Amino acid sequence: MTGCCSSNPQNLLKCPPSDMQILRNTTNLKTGEISHLYKRFCLLGKDSPSFPPKRLAKRHFLTVGHLARNPILAILLKAMFKERKTLTFVNFARFLSIFQANTLKTKKEQLVMTSEKKKRLLFSMYDTDMDGIISHEDLIVIVHRLYGDLMSSQQVLETAATMIFEMDTSGTQKILFEDFSDSLNVFDMEETLVVKIRED
């Protein structure tokens, strides 16, 4: 026998209409994808004082086992939160929409915009001190976080120096966004860093 009490609580969660409208107007997310992301947002904030949660803090991501073990989680959270202490659902969904898989119906201007957003997001992840440029010190931090268990300190320094040499077209020993963007043009950014978002 089934009844209301046997229903999965996740199935009862509905995205607030105002958030749904904002995301439909400002992203390429479909209604079903937004609904799915809202349930994930609520699941992350299940220990919040009020439920459904209005906002998420970084600690909500750090308590999820497989996320906490990700070596670049701190970098991703910095890019996601920026200067904010907490995230609303709209902030959360907009960030994830950058990685949304494209379809044959995706307009060319949307593809260009998505590529630009991905490049700027990646740049912000490498720019660890958020000063608008990627320095040798920034790259040391990134390389150490990604490969610190596999490389010696000397190898980390040499790898960072090589990256500067290969991407610094301005001769400043620093990587400007234009340098960084040009170096990524060899990749198909529309099909790089893509996540398939489920529809509910």
UniProtKB/TrEMBL annotation:
Q: Which Gene Ontology terms of cellular component type are present? A: cytoplasm; nucleus; plasma membrane
Any GO molecular function: calcium ion binding
InterPro entries, sorted: Calcineurin_B_homologous, EF-hand-dom_pair, EF_Hand_1_Ca_BS, EF_hand_dom
Q: Residue ranges of the EF-hand domain?
A: 114-149
Q: Which UniProt keywords apply?
A: Calcium, Cell membrane, Cytoplasm, Lipoprotein, Membrane, Metal-binding, Myristate, Nucleus, Phosphoprotein, Protein transport, Repeat, Transport
What does the record list as GO biological process?
A: protein transport
Q: Where in the cell is it found?
A: Cell membrane; Cytoplasm; Nucleus
The UniProt entry's sequence similarity note says: Belongs to the calcineurin regulatory subunit family. CHP subfamily.
Q: What is this protein called?
A: EF-hand domain-containing protein
